[in-house]
Amino acid sequence: MVWLFLFEGSLALLAIGLGWLFGIQPAADVQLTWQALAWGVAATLPMAVMLPVLVRSSWPPLRQLISQIDEVAKPLLSRLSLAELALLSILAGLGEELLFRGLLQGGLAGTIGHGWALLVSSLVFGLCHALTRTYAVLATLIGLWLGGLWLLAGNLLAPMLTHALYDFFALVYLLRLRR
Predict the structure, then answer these.
(1) Do residues 143 and 100 touch, judged by C-beta distance below 8 A?
(2) CA distance 101 to 96
(3) Within the chain, where are the H helices?
(4) Residues with Cβ < 8 Å from 79, sequence gap 6 or more?
(5) pLDDT in tens, 27-43
(6) When you count CB atoms within 10 A of the terminal residue's CB, does the N or C end of the chain come out lower?
(7) For the whole model, what pTM was predicted?
(8) How far apart are CA 114 and CA 79, in angstroms?
């Protein structure tokens, strides 16, 4: 199980290392401000509201995704404590946002523009989360949401916080609260 924490944590190091290699500072836009914290919490709410709706859907692609989560993720993660789920969520929010938003989206923005950079980084984010085709599409939409949040808030801390809070909510909901 330690490998999961190491993997998520290593994404931040990967982003910083690749950033150094390509002359990009993925964490340059991270500032601890009340505004970024407020944006991060507020942007989590629509995602948290949508999760139970999607989980209860009878649409076959969503049913297949939930079955995959129950078969793959639940046995793997259900033994983790709430503190471990929180740590995993924090590492995912930090590492994935530095990699996909700070490095990829931020690095591409100067070359292809903010809109295309947002789209490309969101598609790559979705492809990297392709447990099923449906999850790839949902992750791409989440990538658009998080990348758009960064552009709107002007602070990478906002999507980092949103990502971490949502992952924690989703893990607790899917592993502990859902019947």
Answers:
(1) yes
(2) 8
(3) 2-22, 34-55, 60-68, 74-77, 82-96, 106-112, 114-128, 133-153, 157-172
(4) 1
(5) 999 999 999 999 999 99
(6) C
(7) 0.96
(8) 41
